[in-house]
What does this fold into?
Amino acid sequence: MRIKELIRTLTLCGLAALMALTVAACGLGDPNNDVIITEEESKKVVNLFSPMEKTEPDAENTARSAFDKTIIMAEEQLGVDVAYRSYTAEDYQDKTYDDVIVDRVRNNMDDIYLLNPDIVQTLGEEGKLVDLSDLSCVENLREVVKTANMVDGKLVAIPQEVVAYGLFINKDMFDKYNLELPETPEDFLECCRVFKENGIETPVGANRWWLETFVFAQGFADMYNGGDTEAEVAKLNSGESKYSDYMRPGFEFLQELIDKDYIDAKKAYVSEAIEGEGDDFLAQKTPIVMAYWGAANTETAYGNPDFNMQVIGFPSSHGQMPVVPITGFGVGAEAEHLQDAKDTLEVILSDEALQVYTETNKVISPSKNVKVDCVPALKPLNDKIEDNVYVLASNAGLKLEQWGNTCLIVRELLNGSTVDECMAMFDKLQEESLNK
It folds into this structure.
């Protein structure tokens, strides 16, 4: 299994659906040839590389519209022109967006970059991203954002939104069988047992990307909710603690779900996110699925179900637990227009701009001062985030990349590997990270 070679592709595929700002993959050959300049440069310009282009001129892109509003604020306040640079993906065989962006950052080709979690970590460790800690907007950031994107004491990326994963619950089906919404893994298993005994063939709809959310919730609940996070990260990075010890409870939980047919492992292994389980959830054949915050806001996913839907955290020893991977905008350490780029981020990440962005996209803001007027279904998940209850699924301070690696090893479990074999994979990856 070539886990490390697959990480970049996986991370983008896994996060593409969750991020309104992230695309699924693939450029065409040389990144220089893939780039589309959508605004001409002027004397005072900032070049921004991201996957937010519209391939169809009349296509609606809410995320792009929200981002454009904040960019306009920066252009008007600073007198700069922000030139969007990107590429058009025509297939899924060549370079991923992550591959292209790494090349561009290493070759100092742009100023600002939209980065996925593993790339934040990779480029941060290489010293290719500037420290953004001196921006005044940083003092308003949620701790979860700063924790996730700190590399060697430097804040190397900041997002415009915080994406949280949760369990999407058909509350009507829970009420029908007098079931409380699950808080712990034991609660969850009991709910699945009742559904199964009452003729629900597959209580949990799953896909090949997002089952790791259960693992993170159970493995890191203590670390991020009452534990000494900094000390535990240091022990993992030194090898004093084993990553597999954190992962084992979640993998054993998933194995029990598989053994009891609460999830369809074979179907999950080949199913894309939402596409694999979405129809059964909306048809009320499956009472539980997992998805990202934005899936409750759009008509194309779960935003308009014919039942009472609630979005809650994943079961853990600390109760319902949101799982949060963090992306972000970074500035190249040797950017040609470095100060103008930082000034641009200062504006688009200000509370004023984030309020506009948040209201437009109905997302969780990285600023603790900006609140989202979320749909009722998302209130349980939002309340947890506001109370600083969460686990991180991406932490650039950890030497071993989390989101992509864990997802790939979960797929090995779905394909028949034992829990012990999966833990051995983590141990091997951790050893490799220590030897870098």
Notes: The longest helix spans residues 62-78. Residues 257 and 300 are 28 Å apart (CA to CA). The mean pLDDT is 86.
